[in-house]
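Reminder to self: tokens first, then the designed residues, so the page reads top to bottom the way the pipeline ran.
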């Protein structure tokens, strides 16, 4: 039977189980051997990671061909309008090609997310806005690049959902096996 572990990866943690430079990594949080990340989250991103010992499941989750949807809470600099965000619905041209259409809405988590250490950069004269964004592909730094292409740099990025799994009930650094 496959092992599946859900982890709420904290900010500034690498999506791998070791690091020769002494940086925080998954092995500092999950004491289970022979499970591997199904997809990655950048060191400066937070949220749900799925770890498994099942290579086929790992491929299905991580591979663009699998088109498993992933939902992100994205805090951006600025106050985008519905018109500003409309291109997300048809795809955004990035330097590595056109993205698939994304679903999105203004607004993020229904409650204030946990504090981040260090906190995001706040500017008194520039507002920030939460978005909820769902993708069916996972290119390198895709959410950040899509938002930047629209003129709204990402301040904080939290992956909330992968397929039917969510990070509900998991504080940063906590994990559970399902």
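Designed residues (178 positions):
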């Amino acid at each position: 039977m496959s092992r599946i572990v859900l982890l709420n990866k904290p900010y500034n943690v690498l999506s791998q189980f070791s690091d020769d430079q002494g940086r925080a990594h998954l092995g500092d949080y999950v004491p289970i051997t022979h499970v591997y990340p199904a997809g990655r989250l950048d060191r400066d991103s937070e949220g749900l990671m799925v770890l498994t010992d099942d290579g086929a499941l790992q491929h299905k989750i991580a591979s663009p061909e699998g088109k498993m949807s992933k939902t992100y809470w994205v805090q951006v600099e600025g106050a985008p309008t519905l018109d500003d965000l409309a291109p997300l619905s048809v795809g955004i041209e990035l330097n590595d090609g056109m993205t698939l259409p994304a679903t999105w809405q203004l607004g993020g988590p229904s409650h204030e997310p946990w504090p981040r250490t260090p906190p995001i950069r706040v500017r008194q004269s520039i507002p920030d806005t939460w978005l909820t964004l769902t993708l069916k592909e996972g290119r390198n730094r895709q959410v950040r690049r899509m938002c930047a292409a629209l003129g709204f740099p990402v301040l904080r990025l939290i992956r909330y959902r992968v397929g039917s799994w969510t990070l509900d009930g998991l504080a940063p650094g906590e994990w559970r096996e399902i």
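The CA atoms of residues 69 and 164 lie 9 Å apart.
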